[in-house]
Amino acid sequence: MERPGKSGIITVVALVVIVLAGWGWTTTPRFRVWWTLRRMREADQVTQVERWLRAAGIGEYLEYDDGAITLARLGEPAVPWLIRTFESKDENMQVAAAASLRYIGPPAVPSLIAALESEDTDVRSYAALALGNIGPDARDGVPALVTLLKDKDPDVRTHGVEALGRIGPAAKDAVPALIAALKDKERVVRMNAAWALGKIGADAREAVPALITALQDKESSVRWCATEALGRIGPAATEAVAPLKEALKHENPRIRRLAAEALGEIGPAAKDAVPALIDALKDEDGGVRSDAAKALGRIGPDAKDAVPALVKAQADEDADVSDAATKALKQIQAAPNEE
Question: In the Cβ-directed half-sphere of 73, how many Cα atoms lie within 13 Å?
């Protein structure tokens, strides 16, 4: 069968567009991306990826839009153009390009690692963001991301620590650098450093002393992330039990909730906090009372002294508290205390 010529194809496509216009489909991001890619094939392929990102209008849809997925289907050949888009100074386009690179995944990692050495601040920053979006599969980028934590630009440092957190336990070699980042002069860098250490989890146990110090940071967001990180490190953060007990008395209810949650994640190793958690069952904040009950349950049989208080908490007017108390009682009484 003879294949239609280029003009015939364009005519057919135009007729389809006219028909689809009646259905309103031409206004969707899926169509804009499709039509733009069609034009690229008919022209000189891709010369400036920012041109088709803008034409596709996908920036506003961030990383879960049809456009980013469609562009990512071009695969590894699109990587250089997407990285070049980081130079565009258009934030929507930069974020959309980073999203597309996420969908391309591991094949994009070597080029993104190389981009971390760019003289352009935005390229370094968004390359780090893209590596973080890829997650554990970007583990080869950990050494290069660590170097970014000393970058002169705070946005680059921020995206660097965030990327390490998204890579997770595979970024455990970055723990010393993240500990140092807890002293960064920028609040957002310190906050993300604490968050990243929490995402690394038990392998970040050497960061416990630094995170305990961060509980006294002048910025509340840093204190929140440090408290949460100690919980995510889990039983290896036993050293933090005493300061977390004190945090149960903090004036900020969010800190109190996070402290109770962290003690629960530390588990039986947090048994010294049982009296403080019993007191927290009377907190004015329902969230604190609920998290205190959950923590006591996770401590298990070693929290047997909390049974009377938990029985009383079953009558709490807050349903979340009463439910948490009931569950905690079952956990505490599930097995006899061997001591």
Answer: 7
Sequence letter at residue 158: T
- Residues 175, 203 contacting (CB under 8 angstroms): yes
* In a domain? residue 204: no
Q: How many domains does the chain have?
A: 1
Among 4-8, 114-118, 174-178, 322-326, the least confident range:
4-8
Residue 332 identity: I
User: What's the half-sphere exposure (Cβ side, CA atoms, 13 Å) at 145?
Assistant: 38
Q: Of 67, 74, 118, which is closest to residue 93 (Cα–Cα)? A: 67
Between CA 146 and CA 161 the distance in angstroms is: 8
On whether the CB atoms of residues 316 and 287 are closer than 8 A, the answer is: no
Whether 135 maps to a domain, the answer reads no
Chain position carrying tokens 């146990």 = 205
pLDDT over 90 percentage in the chain: 67
Look at residue 101 in the predicted model and tell me its pLDDT: 86
Residue 43 burial (CB < 10 Å; 0-12/13-18/19+)? exposed
